[in-house]
Design a protein that fits this description.
The protein is an alpha/beta fold and 386 residues long. α7 packs across α8. Helices cover 28% and strands 26% of the residues. Strands 3-2-4-5-1-6-7-8-9 form a nine-stranded mixed beta sheet, with helices on both faces. A four-stranded mixed beta sheet has the order 10-11-13-12. The protein contains eleven helices and 18 strands. The protein has two domains: 198 residues, 3-Layer(aba) Sandwich (Rossmann fold); 182 residues, 2-Layer Sandwich (Ribosomal Protein S5, domain 2), CATH 3.30.230.10. α3 links the parallel β2 and β3. The structure holds thymidine-5'-diphosphate and magnesium ion. Magnesium ion (MG) binds next to α2.
Length: 386
Amino acid sequence: MDRVLGGGFVRGSTVLVGGDPGVGKSTLMLQAADRAARAGRTVLYLSGEESAAQVAMRGRRVGANAPGLLVGSGTNLAEFGADIEARNPDLVVIDSIQTVAHPDVPSVPGSLTQVRECAARLTGAAKAAGHALVLIGHVTKEGSVAGPRTLEHLVDAVLYLEGDRLQDYRLLRGVKNRFGSTGEIGIFEMSGSGLQDVANPSRYFLSRTTHVLPGVVVTPALVGTRTLLVDVQALTTRSGYGTPARRANGVDATRLAVLLAVLEKRAGLQLSGEDVFVATAGGAKLEDPSCDLAVALAVASAFLDRPFPHDAAVVGEIGLGGEIRPCGPVEARVEEAERLGFKRVLVPAPGIRASRAIEVVSCGSVDDAITWLEPQRTQRKTAKGA
Ligand code: TYD
Ligand code: MG
């Protein structure tokens, strides 16, 4: 959470934490509140969703029991205001902004007027008293108006907790941050005792296929300031009528169009009659230009129906001439690939310090790189074991 916030909570500022009901917002904030309290801060966790006993029960489950963590329950913002004044906390968490109401505002809790007015009063109080404020907000279904989006302009940072509920991973992303970048993501796992750090985040973005498939290429990508291994997947099929379809998920569509043109012109792949679909595993958004090579090779692999070596990762930006250009922190990328058990990594420029466990191969052009596509199907041990 510190990483996503760009260092932590800032006094006088307000962070909005949004997400679907049930995704784990209350759990995340109770754990964060506990950490702050353990660091010697006074934290006031005010719940309009649950009774203090229910919050305490969750607290016991996740081990949140720091003496400085105070819990209150209610829906009256005037009472909460009095609590805040009396306790003079360092951090205040309101769970959720949709459940509180100020008696002076003649509007029901959760309505646009009420939510805005309460948020404005709370942020004003945070600024005046100098405590950090967190507002939890449910992402509301279409039709209800008072979702977190209506508050984004009022607050200093907006974080969304996302997850697919079938798997236990949760991603925390910043969509607005006055104090840091929004490129960082937090990756957690929901366990029986709350959200846990994921020790090996690259695992999340590697698809869990056990067989080698054509069209899958792994790249160590920069996600915020971290290097994570991400699976790029491609599928090509003969196009029916008219303009071929091109769909990109997690990869920039314009960039994909450029790479397809390069593959056609510089590597002789007849892609103009093909529908092309590209996606990243785990919904990673690749904004790093050095993922070009992985995208191009995934498409080439799918088109040629030849799997890319399962023990190899690739990194490099591709120029219009089909040349592979040098890119940012190659060392860190090679290390991450090595750490996850890859045996070979294809990089743009020679001169990378050769490490013992991974073979570093430099490659000048996309045409050269395509020679790496191996014809035989083999077990993909790396991704399976990772
Ligand atoms: P919660 O934090 O209540 O979600 P939100 O505040 O976003 O609505 O968490 C909801 C889910 O998380 C709930 O289905 C139970 C599960 N959970 C765990 O799996 N482990 C835990 O330790 C806790 C506290 C919750
Ligand atoms: Mg909740």
